[in-house]
Amino acid sequence: MQTVQSGEVCVNVNGHRGGFFRTYQGLRQGGPLSPLLFNLVADALSALLDKAVRKKHIIGVLADLILGGISHVQYADDTVIMTDGSE
Questions:
Q1: Most buried residue, 12, 17, 21, 72, by most Cβ within 10 Å?
Q2: pTM over 0.70
Q3: Closest residue by Cα to residue 27 from 18, 19, 38
């Protein structure tokens, strides 16, 4: 039961792991509310990235073809964030 109810996880970004943090009993992958929570967070991230593009804090790729460029692509449970790092 201890193995199922607790653990430590970290976030991996571009091969660099952040600090570990403890998980506790609560919402789990595969639970009935997991897809809803994922969609809420994914929509919020999308809105934040769109706002950053509008305010010119970031520039998406292909900005010469598409107004503001493409800052991110989301499919299923994957998100790819793309910005023009030239500035």
A1: 72
A2: no
A3: 38
